[in-house]
Amino acid sequence: MPRFESLERGTRRARASSVRATPSRRGLGRLAAALCAALPTIALAQVKIGLVLSLTGPAASLGIPARDTVALLPKQIGGQSVEYIVLDDASDTTQAVQDTKKLISENHVDAIIGSSITPNSLSMIDVVADGETPMISLASSAKIIEPVDAKRHWVFKTPQTDAMMASAIAAHASAHGVKTMAFIGQADALGETFYTEVAKFAQLHHIDMVASERFNRTDPSVTGQVLKILATHPDAVVVGAAGTPAALPPKTLRERGYKGLIYHNHGVGNNDFLRVCGADCNGTFLPASPVLVAAQLPMDHPAKRLALDYIARFEALRGAGSVSAFGSYTWDAGMLLGNAIPIALKQAAPGTPEFRRALRNALEATRGLADTNGVVNMSATDHLGLDQRARVMVEIRNGKWVYQPN
């Protein structure tokens, strides 16, 4: 009985407490209303970053290391959680545009990273400009960011430009006695823009361009193009292509007995290219990201420490020898955003046009930011911000990247 009496007394006290609390229901209502009003603010607190990557198709060897790097990017920046939304553009310009529209109109992202390749990145510019959403491209062409007009106002990039790399090729070729040079590149924006830069810097070094050929990423053979090149007897051949399709010209040149110098675009900086090209690429050269040869760089190179740190993180995730330049470009895009987002947060909340504008402005104001490829100093007319320290000359020797000091 005492037990039941105790329970009854407890019940009466609880009821009394409930009755006494009844007058504060208005207060509870006001609290609930305040919480509901706060919900949109809470939702907006999450920063959303969209990525358009070439995960399938001919450029997959560029997009997959970028996707794998996303797992290493910070999940919180400036006290706000960060969500990364990855879409596959299938190495196709139309799909890249559709992905970009989806990220802006449906996912309401605050920034976009991508695409992996030049044609797709160029196709995305109109969309991000219309959506007033900052974009950081992972592709090479300087045309992606130059000139910084009303549309490219919203566009940045992390890889070295084709102009930077073409100048390195011409200087190296000249130092090795090259007088005539031929070009074979992809039949797209990458091939065309890289040829323009190679021809320009070749002329500056008094090297004659004697042939210029094109091929498609999906072509099974380039024998016809190579035969035309060989008929001009060039001292060197430059291959303007990216990913594993870039292995076809050097393999065909070697099969046809070519003994001259062969240069690659920096779009081949991964182990998939080495695997596909095999022994036919031994003794060939490319201007490349410092990440490829980070352990071989002098101690005072500005990218060495951060490149080694990124390599350690990536290889812990994907295994020894798995790192590539294309993952590092994504890591550097993350570093740019990690630096800019806290600045933008002081001005506006994520998910708003004001935040996107503030983020764009903060990216453009980046100064002295060291990353895995060099030191970034952007401006209103330079949306890359890297200098010549961001490139190194590399030889492919026995299936390995070998640093070539100046």
Automatic annotation (TrEMBL):
Pfam families: Peripla_BP_6 (PF13458). The keyword Signal applies. Keywords: Signal. Residues 1-21 are annotated as: Disordered. Residues 46-392 form the Leucine-binding protein domain. The keyword Signal applies. CDD domains: PBP1_ABC_RPA1789-like. Belongs to the leucine-binding protein family. This is Periplasmic binding domain protein. Residues 1-11 have a biased composition (Basic and acidic residues).
